[in-house]
Amino acid sequence: MKKDKANKHKGDGHRKRLREKFLKAGLSGFHDYEVIELLLTLNTPRKDCKEIAKNLLKYFKTLQGVFEANHKELQQIKGVGPLNIMGLKLIKEVCLRYLEKKIISKDIIKNSHDLINYINYAIGYKTKEVFVGIFLNAKNRVISCDILFKGTLTSSSIYPREVISKALGHRAAALIFVHNHPSGDCLPSPEDISITKKLIFALKHVGIIVHEHIITGEKNFYSFADQGIIADFNKEFKQNEE
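Above: the chain sequence. Below: its structure as tokens.
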């Protein structure tokens, strides 16, 4: 009995120190496993979560890997149950909502830093490709961010008519496209370039502008606009119209 009481006291003291450390300075100075441990303690009463947190980080390699793992993958780690998973998933979704709210209704062209933060967090660490459309009004303020496609992009995987339909439904005046490269290499493939051109031409016919297409990886991103590709396609479209 005395041994159990001592163990409980030790665990409670460790949790208290973690919480006090966070309240004093945020996550500054925290190891990644301590971040996971702190989240696990929220839904794990009377149990040491340090070892579970370290095992999660060891299995999924990175903090982002833990957050991106699905329910079945997380449950492969001994000691991780439904309540733990809810805590891990909740914090990720809260962060995503927070970053999304920071760009909604803003002139995203003038707030590109917030856009890049949102993009990197939302899809930069995903293990499969995701193609996102960011719909803008006439003042370049974000109306909505929609996933348009999941899976490996090919020249036939994105249907311009569906994108046009969504854009008209949102009453969008412009679009920014974003997708990720799970490999981390952000250079565009021939398919990426072909899809961008196809979408720009299709949307131009209904009076909707494509401002940008960004490819993101874990740490870097590639901007079609910065490389002059968007301008070149717009010029080609104008020449074809003439």
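The CA atoms of residues 188 and 215 lie 7 Å apart.
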